[in-house]
Amino acid sequence: MTEARLETGVAAGRLAPEEYERGFGDLHPPLDRHEALVAADRCYFCYDAPCVTACPTGIDIPMFIRQIATGNTLGAAKTIFDQNILGGMCARVCPTETLCEQACVREAAEGRPVEIGRLQRVATDAAMAAGRQFYRRAEPTGRRIAVVGAGPAGLACAHRLAVHGHEVTVLDARPKAGGLNEYGIAAYKTVDGFAQAEVEYVTAIGGITVEPGRALGRDVTLAGLCAGYDAVFLGLGLAGVNALGTPGDDADGVADAVDWIAELRQASDLATLPVGRRVVVIGGGMTAIDAAVQAKLLGAEEVTICYRRGREHMNASAWEQDLAASKGVAIRHWLRPRRVLAERGRVTGIELEYTRLADGRLDGTGETLTLAADQVFRAIGQSFVAAPLDGAIALEGGRIRVDAEGRTSMAKVWAGGDCVAGGDDLTVSAVAMGRDAAESIHRSLS
Description:
Layout: H1 3-8, E1 10-11, H2 17-23, H3 33-41, H4 50-54, H5 61-69, H6 73-83, H7 87-93, H8 100-103, H9 105-110, H10 116-129, E2 144-148, H11 152-163, E3 167-172, H12 180-183, H13 194-203, E4 208-212, H14 222-228, E5 231-234, E6 240-241, E7 254-256, H15 257-266, E8 275-276, E9 278-282, H16 286-297, E10 302-306, H17 318-326, E11 330-332, E12 335-343, E13 346-358, E14 361-372, E15 375-378, E16 382-383, E17 395-396, E18 399-400, E19 413-415, H18 427-445
Parallel strand pairs: 2-3, 2-5, 3-4, 5-19, 7-15, 9-10, 9-15, 10-11
Antiparallel strand pairs: 1-8, 6-16, 12-13, 13-14, 17-18
Helix pairs in contact: 3-5, 5-6, 5-10, 6-10, 7-10, 11-18, 15-16, 16-17
């Protein structure tokens, strides 16, 4: 071990090669044919299917499960893709435990729902592996639409517009398309380069040109896009990260969890990614869970999530919290950061204050706790960066204001996904907004 590693406690290559492979293997391995048939057989095929109501994209869940049960797996895939062209990724990352599976009648009756997410993966994986495309483009309309952001909302919008015969140019600031699916989700949830495979599947319909490395406000302007295209869709996501707002927040070793996850997702060799011995993650959402679990899987000895409220208030589902605990992550509630401790500019720990609810308001108790740490990750929420819009579009609550069809206050411009007011930061919801905005754009252009 080098002197630098001894000093900082942050090092790469903490584990044997097989441990990385095991730790970052598929979180939910795909069902085999027999397992899929057994899982499908548990569905009651409810006529009023509460699972469908709970799905933001409205997939006909009983229908696709029945198709799997009768051996029509590709038919099941089409049923899914009709509503959600990114159904493969959603099968992997959707919080089904709080959406369709929570609403499942089996869950209410037995406490064990039909495995809807894993069954969805069976169908979508089969179609993608076979290269089966279910849609043909309509006759070219001569209309051109710019989609800014190649994340779930942008890709869903682009695909539906291409189906209608429009020409779509997708611009994205990053080197790769995929958005959150490529850069922001834990590696063990989407293995084997699935995010890029899905991008290729979605764009294979034709009529979609992806231009990476082109950012709104830097390489193109909104006014320029409106002048050069018949319509514009904004799927910009949330590029800003909230700061801790405490002394020492700028110490070496303090980083944004989203940036660290993106670095991990793009690493060709996980053994080259440094991680601390003692890691503290501040936050209570999915990003906090993903960062903490992956730090543990990289070999961190102690990983602690600190959240300012109780377990029931965390945005991360109970299932995700239990997953973190099963990997050895400690979750401590009713704590908020007070200051980051550092020596010679390098983080050595974090001082936290205990909190409580008083008349519905979160207050500090004055009692403090200090945790040793050589790495601290901020995961306390992301914000929309409105600067690239140059003040041309109305905002609401710091995000883009849209109507029921995704139209913004600016003519010819629609928006969807996490960047809009009311977005719930879910891949599946972003897909639904992108899809519905595409239909609105198509009606407008027709």
